[in-house]
Specification:
eight-stranded parallel β-barrel, 13 strands, 439 residues, globular, binds flavin mononucleotide, TIM Barrel, alpha/beta
């Protein structure tokens, strides 16, 4: 199997090749949390860059709870014309454009909400950025399921060619899956079948809305890498259920805000974690072994579902090796697309692309390794990396070139300032104010 091969999904949709631009939060929404021209420019650039599938960053299903100010919110018909333009731009050259649907749960910054929701009132302790959440009542859970269905339906109407449910990285659905965060003793907590109920109900609700021929994907952690958390065995079982539920594509990732495997960091909480992006191990992908275990579980149970693995791919050889193993159908890339928007075309043509994450990320040395023992440094360091990439996205979206070797610290300061400005300027559309945002 080759990166250039097409892929037919169970719902009948066809991807033109095996390279996927993974979800990356854009932070480009306007004051009303609607999509903007900047989304159109960014996604047109990526679509023309040759990837078979582009997945949007988190699009939030509830205006009250964002992953970050600047997220697009889709909960009603307001903002549909720009959403259509975004969908048209991102599907140029027969690229697929799928909207990632998300609810942050407790990973909603204080800037946005002083009382986020979560399965249980277990606070995220990250430099005081997140408030103590309120445990969701049964009505909150049912309302969230409805919201995922509504947002999926609006995405379909706007011309997006699929949806992805973000059930990874410690967001709401991932919180329900985690026994560490989900301490409930009702039908939404306890055994895995209960913890996975929200995920499966959301999938079913969306399928009901979008029909049989529209792609539905789920992004799931292979594990959250927390002791006593959601582990690989849980993930394999969820994959079997998702296959039964008619999910077209499972994207395998891992980690959360507390444990940052998703960006290639390793080690247990409290111990040193190194960004291994330049090492041989991560060049083969951070989650390949985990995705293969899931593929084997599916095969062993006689179930078929397409799999994609994302995280740490930096060479064409590693991507092709993974596809050649069998069982993994697509390779997802995030950060490399920020600095090289036509990365997919280059990969597909067989050009030797140096997938460079640009200076800051490869910084290392003894001081850095020592500092990585301290949680505050680790968190700031990783937030700096995310900020640096988010800034490159914003530059592309505004028609400018990536900024190369600017410092992570500067990127972080600018990123935080931009989030504060966004949060201060937000002005929900009248429709949301009138409806009172009931649940
Ligand atoms: C700036 C930035 C924003 C991200 N936003 C999202 C997001 O909205 N949803 C999501 O599922 N993952 C998000 N991710 C994670 C990526 O999809 C991907 O899993 C991660 O970057 C690892 O892949 P990579 O090594 O190819 O970058 C984000 C990553 C970065 C760097």
């Amino acid at each position: 199997m080759d990166l250039t091969d097409g892929l037919e999904l169970p719902c009948g949709a066809r991807l033109k090749n095996r390279v996927v631009k993974a979800a990356m939060s854009e932070g480009l929404a306007d004051r009303q949390d609607h999509a903007t021209q900047a989304h159109c420019r960014l996604y047109e650039t990526w679509a023309r860059g040759g990837a078979g599938l582009l997945i949007t960053g988190n699009v939030m299903v509830d205006r009250r709870y964002l992953e970050r100010p600047g997220n697009v919110v889709l909960e009603d018909e307001s903002g549909m014309s720009m959403l259509r333009a975004w969908a048209a731009a991102g599907t140029r050259e027969e690229a697929h454009l799928w909207m990632q649907l998300s609810h942050p749960g407790r990973q909603c910054p204080k800037l946005v909400s002083k009382e986020p929701l979560a399965p249980s009132a277990v606070q995220l302790d990250l430099l005081g950025n997140f408030a103590r959440p309120r445990a969701m009542a049964e009505e909150d859970i049912e309302a969230a399921i409805e919201r995922f269905g509504k947002t999926a339906s609006l995405a379909q109407q706007a011309g997006f060619t699929g949806v992805q449910i973000n059930a990874a990285h410690g967001y709401l659905i991932s919180q329900f899956l985690s026994p560490k965060v989900n301490r409930r003793d009702d039908r939404w907590g306890g055994i895995l079948a209960n913890r996975a109920r929200l995920l499966l109900r959301v999938v079913a609700r969306i399928r009901q809305e979008v029909g049989a021929h529209f792609p539905i994907s789920v992004k799931l952690n292979a594990a959250d890498f927390q002791r006593g958390g959601f582990d690989l065995e849980d993930s394999c079982q969820c994959a079997l259920w998702l296959a039964d539920a008619g999910v077209d594509l499972l994207e395998v990732s891992g980690g959360d805000f507390e444990h940052l495997r998703l960006l290639g960091y390793r080690g247990d909480p409290g111990t040193a974690e190194d960004p291994d992006v330049a090492s041989g191990a991560v060049k083969a992908g951070c989650f390949t072994d985990y995705a293969l275990a899931i593929a084997n579980a599916l095969k062993g149970a006689g179930k078929a579902m397409h799999l994609m693995v994302t995280g740490g791919f930096r060479t064409r050889e590693a991507m092709e090796r993974v596809l050649a193993l069998g069982g993994i159908d697509l390779v997802g890339l995030g950060r490399p697309f920020c600095a090289t928007p036509d990365l997919a075309r280059k990969l597909l043509r067989g050009e030797c692309v140096p997938i460079d994450l640009h200076g800051p990320l490869q910084a290392g040395g003894a001081l850095h390794r020592w500092l990585m023992r301290f949680k505050t440094y680790r968190v700031l360091r990783v937030q700096g990396e995310v900020a640096w990439h988010a800034r490159q996205l914003a530059k592309l979206a505004h028609g400018r070139d990536p900024e190369g070797a600017s410092s992570l610290a500067l990127a972080l300061v600018k990123h935080m300032a931009a989030d504060m400005v966004h949060a201060g300027r937000r002005k929900p559309p009248v429709s949301a104010q009138v409806s009172g945002m009931a649940n």
